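Data card: per-record layout.
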Amino acid sequence: MPGAEPCPDDQIDLRDYMDGLFHGHAAHLGERFAITPDSDKGRSCSDLTDPASLKQLLDFYAETSFPGDDARSSVSYWSQWYFGLLLPPLILLAGAARSQLPASLANLRLALDASGQPQGFELTDPYVAPALDADTPFDRLAPLIDGHLSPLVFSLSARSGVSAKVFWMNAAVVIDYTDEVLWSGSQDIDLKAITGSPKKPDGNRNPLFSPYRPSGSEATRTRRVCCLRYGLEGVARCQDCSLKPTYGNDRRPLVLGASK
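The structure for this 260-residue chain is written out next.
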């Protein structure tokens, strides 16, 4: 059996940083994210920008999991699982390797359960460029924001009729969760610069800005844009619900998939 191809001189092999990466509050991600070169399992994330392919998937998910409920709510809920299982491992991995984010749609494959709900991801290309000393947080996350989230959010919004703001805020909440709960040791990427800046360095609006309304306490904060989960039978409202907040010490995980 031929050996693995050697790592290009100007690239980082992310497989070298996987051991022990997911522990503590991030332990569940060890079963949800893998680096598997040339895998053909699941579905390529690039398929999700194809209108017909995405509509078929979202319609199936709504009909299978939430028949009779608001289909817009089911699409937002689907995206919460997607972002909750994808963004933390990509950010943690890039932080550990001090690299750019390996976020290309073409190099990520999505595993789905029988209902079409996201269950995990495989990265099929282990090589990525190192970060530069001059890189800003937006430079580090550019492959994710511009190359992955932007086309996916556009496609999700176009196929569902749900405002793009809902999906961007679903992603921003996950980035905040990664910063507040999952970082350990040195924080290599200033994630608060991502969710705390109204504009990107090029002057364009930052769609990930400010997922929460201003509050004096995390225990009383609410989402700026509702995630629409209230429209799904049997699904608890998020603990930061802007319509009916859940205050107290029994607050549920901020991110779907954050516990088994």
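Known properties of this structure: Helices lie at 51-65, 71-97, 137-160, 164-182, 191-195. The mean pLDDT is 89.

See the next section for split statistics.
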